[in-house]
Amino acid sequence: MCGIVGYLGNSVAQDALIDGLRRLEYRGYDSAGAAFHDGNAFSLARETGRVENLASTLRESNPTSTLGIAHTRWATHGAVTVSNTHPHLSHDGKIALVHNGVIENYGPLKRILEGKGIEFSSETDSEVLSNLIAYHYARLEGEEEQFAQALREALSQCRGAYGIAVLCVDEPGFLLGARRGSPLVVGLGDGETFLASDASAFVGRVRDAVYLKDGEIALLREDGFRIITMQGEDAQAVSQPIDQTVEDVEMGDFDSFMEKEIFEQPVALENTLRGRFGDDGTTAKLGGLEGHEDELRRLNRIVFVACGTARHSCMVGEYLIERLARVPVEVEHASEFRYRNSPKAGHTLVIAVSQSGETLDTLEAVREARTKGLLTIGITNGVGSSLARETDGGVYQRVGAEIGVASTKAFTSQVALCAMLGLALGRMRELSPIQGREIAEALQNLPENVASILQRGETLRELAHKYSEAEHLLFLGRQDLYPVALEGALKLKEISYAHAEGYPAAELKHGPIALINPECPSIFLVEEGELGAKTIANMQEVKARSGPVLAIVPEGVEVPDGAADDVFRVPAVHEVVRPIVATIPLQLFAYHFARIRSLDVDKPRNLAKSVTVE
Ligand code: F6R
């Protein structure tokens, strides 16, 4: 949700800023801009559309300044226009600011500033903040640390979320940043310092980073940096090595990040699972839960909170954990949970799942749970993220940066971790060592099973081609394959803009069957055994109404003649890993379906990767 980069160093800022924005483009791609400190004024370049548009403008103007800030926007307040594009300068030209987040009380603040004769040139909440800082800067003339003080005063008047980078014309050696609710990280290089929404912006140029905590301000100077609190006191700056590599954040030989990330899944799953099985091979050992064993033994209810794809992984987790550990599980939309007065029943564990660890609704749900005194655990890929910091314990996904807006490798890793959690909780309860070992082995074999499906990607491309004219598709599955059907439908609709819906297969007859016609394909996920036979009967109901059927079916399950137009086989695996195996063909199907329509799968319309606004 908007990406910001700031650069202060001994090289030309524009290269670092454009490289950084390219890496952050997954956060928003409505418009992009940069401001450079030019000695006694700012030079500004702003373009609607992709970062590439800004890059070509800068190639012409070629600014040589070594101090600048830049932004790639996902519009919240104000349309996608040049005047709404960041950076925003204050009315007097003294302050330049880039902002990720939402200033909730910008209306009243704007009225106060307008009352003082200040004119605005955009519809954004962010311009209010640059003017407010400029107002305090002028008021504090002659005071010590005038710029930092003005920033603190301005922020103390703001409600909402922000990650910002700020420059002042009169302070050529300074780059300031602050965060509340939106991520901000300082990159410490050799003779150069960065500020960015995400460390991927400076991977390859910088080895160490300091992740700012909420309520902290970073004061970067040419000769060093300080982190202070909103009260102006020094805060501890803990620097840590960046855990990403250039290969992680670049596309390599793939056509898109989404394709790269789909194909990374065997390795990603191996990394998620590595070293996380007990020594006797019958249970899971999740380091982040250590110290909470008594609570985990005692708990009698789990509430998952998450959004989007991450929530679908929790829905799979509900089936897996209830089956393995016999603990009742509920799955809530984080955005609903945070405003609900849900009863605090028994020993409840709240598990928040978020790839980025920065999704605002998920974080607020965690905060609400903690206010109620509930134990909270985070499952996240975001090392050092807000979720990692704000939960009582947690488990990292370890799948490397996920840059494609449509989540793929993060989803399968989240499901694998839910299975691991089910295994660990199950072994603390009634699950036998033999059952535990079978599950552990099934999980360890998973990367190989996933790889075997990826090798048949070409078949899925052909299938996607066959169905690519459809504008309405249904995805159907039972039990743990029902959330997989939801995920398949979400993947398809978000990157191809075709309308797709997921349903429990048996629910078809209660309404959706009315949609069936020769133009509306149904994609069925079939399991083994008795329930699989029932799903195949549902397929036949669709065929009887001339609906095209593509079935994803485990090896060995017989599909009667005429029950499906196309059958894609997946390995027959233990039921605990079945949802992951069934997901892979749906990801590739969606990917090819969208590519055949010549769409940019990494930057789907209206979306952004990390949703840090409500
Ligand atoms: C869909 C997708 C989104 C995210 C959701 C939560 O492909 O990626 O639905 O799953 O925005 O994001 P995180 O997991 O970062 O909290």
Describe the structure.
The structure is a single chain. The chain is an alpha/beta fold and about 625 residues long. Helices cover about 35% and strands about 20% of the residues. The chain is built from 19 helices and 24 strands. The strands form 4 sheets. Strands 3-2-4-1-10-9-11-14 form an 8-stranded antiparallel sheet, with helices on one face. Helix 17 (about 480-495) links the parallel strand 20 (about 470-475) and strand 21 (about 500-505). Helix 1 runs antiparallel to helix 2, helix 4 crosses helix 5 and helix 14 (about 410-425) packs antiparallel against helix 15 (about 435-455). The termini are close together. Fructose -6-phosphate binds next to helix 10 and helix 17.
What's a quick, concise take on this entry?
By secondary structure, the protein is an alpha/beta fold. The chain is globular and about 80 Å long. The structure holds fructose -6-phosphate.
Could you give the topology of this structure?
Blueprint: E1 3-9, H1 13-24, E2 31-37, E3 42-48, H2 51-61, E4 67-73, E5 88-89, E6 95-103, H3 106-115, H4 126-139, H5 146-156, E7 160-168, E8 174-180, E9 185-188, E10 192-196, E11 208-211, E12 216-221, E13 224-229, E14 239-241, H6 246-249, H7 257-263, H8 265-273, H9 293-298, E15 301-306, H10 308-325, E16 329-333, H11 334-337, E17 348-354, H12 360-371, E18 375-380, H13 386-390, E19 393-396, H14 409-427, H15 433-454, H16 457-467, E20 472-477, H17 481-496, E21 499-504, E22 522-525, H18 529-543, E23 549-554, E24 566-570, H19 578-596
Parallel strand pairs: 15-16, 15-17, 17-18, 18-19, 20-21, 20-22, 22-23, 23-24
Antiparallel strand pairs: 1-4, 1-10, 2-3, 2-4, 5-6, 6-7, 7-8, 8-12, 9-10, 9-11, 11-14, 12-13
Helix pairs in contact: 1-2, 3-4, 4-5, 8-14, 8-15, 10-14, 10-17, 14-15, 15-19, 16-19, 17-19
The protein binds fructose -6-phosphate.
